[in-house]
Design brief:
With 477 residues, the protein is an alpha/beta fold. It has 17 helices and 22 strands.
Length: 477
């Protein structure tokens, strides 16, 4: 038997279950110069004083990390509890970090189920670990039934959500995966990644804009997509407040053009990615996403029996380019301060893979014309998020409150006061009860909105948004 390098850092493994044993056995088979496992900590009473994978269980985890690490002269800690909740991970991480040791973690159960690594992958603890929820239960057969062997078009495929949708679609072996988006560098990047990871999947990368009807029509004529996942959108609230016409062009007109082509070409499944900012919108961006939902609901009324058009509404996603997290990370790397707009502000959060998986699951439900609402868990205070990131960095960074910007909300809602939900067969997905607008009324009002946008008449764009969405609170110019 090959022995670990005695010069490696003495390491305690937190969790003596399957994951912890896997790490210990792998390090025994393939020793690493930097890791020398010396024992486990585990809360199970039956394991105390026992040997697991040739290593002693030195005691329980909670309340004993620093003492056990001192006694074992351990310099490093590995958290090997992939099914632990975010609250459990947070408590253990804070205690482990307070002991002064380097802390690493095994990926969550949902990550392991998705990528199925043969060898346990260790990494630093990140924000998603502290907000971890139980992995969503997916009906893989139902998802595969509408994706496997099909031609799937993903718009906005270079973005955070679009690229993750493309990755997860690739797992279901589509017949042809089309990556459509405006940013050539981001589209090229996801294409190269998918070529390496899924060489058996036929794919095409197309640079284009959902606002350009002629080009989009050529794509449909040439590729004949059967499933469309629509993730192309402008999402930055403050930027769209300054350029409201751009939000209308991309989020509203682009969605109208795309949905019309999906009807014309008999697309069997159309899934529009929406946002909790569409609920009682206070911003141009949020109002534009609500109009996109209305467009899809009206288009669904003209769909054939074998077609299903739907929207999926959810909150913020951790790590997306439009979220607050990358901004906080940049501020921390620069030495601070970390800026928040209001200490009372809360948001719903999901990880990008979690949101994308539930989008695909909602697509499998195929209830034509519906707006699905994802179960987002409990809202998170933005100031707590900032403090978590600062703690993860190990630095002492100040937090600066700057005041709310135009169009921002203190808290997000997934439903309006007049909406309620129906349960679907999936515990994490609901259907919002919404009135479908009259098709002729919507077409006329959209034409007026588009005319104002093309004239760059911001005052009338905002006025028209308030007219079309009475519950909105979009500010006047």
């Amino acid at each position: 038997m090959t022995c670990p390098d005695p010069g490696g850092q003495r390491t305690l493994i937190l969790g003596a279950g399957y994951a912890g044993r896997l790490i210990a056995e792998e390090l025994r088979r393939q020793p690493r110069a930097d890791l020398l496992p010396v024992g486990f900590l585990d809360d199970a009473p039956a394991l105390q004083g026992q040997q697991v994978a040739g290593l002693p269980v030195l005691g329980p985890i909670r309340g004993h990390i620093a003492l056990a690490a001192d006694q074992a002269q351990a310099q490093r800690l590995i958290l090997a509890m992939p099914s632990a909740s975010g609250e459990e991970v947070r408590g253990i991480f804070e205690e482990a970090q307070a002991s002064g040791r380097l802390v690493q973690i095994m990926p969550s159960l949902s990550e392991l189920l998705l990528d199925r690594p043969k060898v346990p992958q260790l990494r630093d603890v990140n924000l998603a670990d502290l907000l971890r929820r139980p992995p969503a239960r997916l009906a893989h057969e139902d998802i595969g039934a509408y994706l496997t062997g099909q031609t799937v078009l993903v718009t906005g495929a270079g973005g955070s959500i679009g690229s993750e949708l493309a990755r997860q679609v690739a797992h279901y072996a589509p017949g042809h995966l089309i990556l459509f988006g405006r940013g050539e560098n981001s589209i090229f990047s996801i294409q190269q990644e998918l070529i390496e990871r899924f060489p058996e999947v036929r794919q095409s990368a197309i640079i284009g804009d959902v606002r350009h009807a002629k080009h989009l029509q050529r794509v449909f004529e040439r590729c004949q997509p059967q499933v469309v996942l629509h993730a192309a959108a402008h999402k930055h609230v403050p930027l769209m407040e300054d350029s409201p016409s751009e939000a209308i062009y991309n989020n509203v007109i682009g969605t109208r053009i795309l949905s019309s082509l999906c009807l014309e070409f008999g697309v069997r499944r159309f899934v529009n990615i929406s946002s909790d900012k569409a609920v009682n919108p206070t911003s141009v961006m949020g109002a534009s996403k609500r109009l996109a939902e209305m467009i899809i609901s009206v288009a669904a009324q003209s769909a054939n029996p074998d077609q299903a058009f739907m929207s999926v509404r959810f909150g913020n996603v951790l790590g997306s380019r439009g979220s607050v997290v990358p901004t906080f990370i940049r501020q921390i790397e620069a030495g601070g301060p970390v800026t928040i707009t209001d200490e009372r502000m809360t948001r719903y959060f999901m990880t990008i893979p979690e949101a994308s998986r539930l989008v695909l699951q909602a697509g499998a439900l195929a209830d034509n014309g519906k707006v699905y609402v994802l179960k987002m868990g409990q809202p998170v205070r933005i100031v707590d998020l900032a403090q978590d990131l600062i703690r993860l960095s190990g630095q002492d960074i100040k937090i600066l409150v700057t005041g709310m910007r135009r169009g921002e909300k203190l808290y997000e809602e997934l439903l309006t006061a007049h909406e309620s939900v129906d349960q679907t067969p999936h515990e994490d997905i609901f259907i919002a009860r919404l009135e479908v607008p009259d098709a002729e009324w919507l077409a006329a009002e959209l034409a007026a909105l588009e005319a104002y946008a093309r004239e760059e008449d911001y005052a009338h764009v905002r006025q028209q948004l308030r007219k079309m969405i009475p519950e909105s609170q979009v500010a006047a110019e």
